[in-house]
Amino acid sequence: METQTSSLLSLAFVLVFSFVLTTSADVHGNFIQCLTSHSQNTTSISQVIYTQNNSSYSSVLEFSIQNPRFLSAATPKPLVIITPLHESHIQVAINCSRKHGMQIRVRSGGHDYEGFSYVSDAPFFVLDLINLRSISVDVENSSAWVQAGATIGELYYRTAENSKTLGFPAGVCPTVGVGGHFSGGGYGLMLRKFGLAADNVIDAHIIDVNGRILDRESMGEDLFWAIRGGGGGSFGVITAWKIKLVPVPSTVTVFTVPKTIEQNATMLVHRWQYIADKFDEDLFIRIILRVINSSEDGKKTIQASFNSLFLGGADELLPLMQKDFPELGLIRSDCLEMSWIESILYFAGFPSGASLDVLLDRTPLTRRSFKAKSDYVKEPISEIGLEGIWRRFYEEEGATAEMILSPYGGKMNEIPESETPFPHRIGNIYKIQHLVYWDEEGIEASIRHIDWIRRLYSYMTPYVSKSPRAAYLNYRDLDIGVNSNKGNTSYAQASIWGIKYFMNNFNRLVHVKTMVDPTNFFKNEQSIPPVSPWWKKRGN
Which helix (H) or strand (E) holds 272? Predict the structure, then answer.
């Protein structure tokens, strides 16, 4: 009897598994057929479709995977990758995806911290925008149109190519794609002067769930508001941004002053918290914390690197530092004067004298597995609190960790919390990015390092924002909450993570989502959910 039961169970499993495979294959085949039959140019679209049987599939998929922890064999892979050459390819992909039940993931640069742009548990395809990266700079009107597949490095390069006095306040890493960066807020070293990247977006093109190509006027102000900080993946496929370029001086000054515990790093970090958000808005000083080898044999110490951009010359900077932060002891020889575009290379970690052409390379300098988290600090952390952080960095996994403290204030205090979905404005002294890296392969190494950063995050609880404990969308973190994997996430479930990213702006984002994508076609583990009408909630 037991043998018969076991055989029946085995047969049932085989039948179910075969049904799943067959269903997946049917969806895949029907989707491909739909793409080719509905495209205006069959030859054109066939050249940008990569199935798992295509010899180029793996190289196309892996080229823009910026976090190797999502390269394992166990990580779900897309059934298809599409690299559109123009917007009509995207329109066909959306329509065929809706018809055949394939989930869509949109990838610009591949830097999503949790791999949302190329990982899903449902049958899915990746819409990789790598071919849509044209940039048109209008110097006369201090603006530019940037396609969503471009990187911020490419944007910086093209801006500097056309003007020595214009720049843009986006991020430090040049291989980040503008599609995700701008839609999540996008901060850089000029945020105290000009705000976020999203604060300087003046128009956009988006393809909605119905395949319509919309600009700011046709999409309306609610949707335009939502995509500037609310994440683009919830509302449609953003194909281009129009941005306002900002004036930059002919000379900027940079410095990096490292201090160890033995050189009073604890006191200096503690002091920095009281003044960093109050400096002149032309001055940005962040702190990068990490463990290094001490001068004493076999011992470790904490190094706090004071890393700064000043929009002006050293002769202007030194008196400001002497007045506001004399404790750091900045001297003329610490300062490097250069052009704004050269400072982009400096902060990206390129060697002195490197060609600007490196900004056009979409391959990062390093590619290591990592896990990140974020926090906002409203009150200075005590020296005792800082020493508790040091102790955790001395643990084994802390050897490859970083904590980056980025000051707010200046322009960030002037922009209302509701101006865009990004709410973290006045009242925040600085933002923390917690990072831990590892090079070992395998699940054990991932678990060990992720557990370490979670313990650090837990330790930080008394010292950071509360009710909610705020987080930054572009430092995506699944630990703070996830949607249902069945696609029917409730407002209550999504608000667990949504309030942390968006605070009081979450409700408006849900309202916009309900208007533009009521069936929740564009979804992921942390996408904005629509709210069902009351009669649907009752099942009528």
Answer: helix 265-275
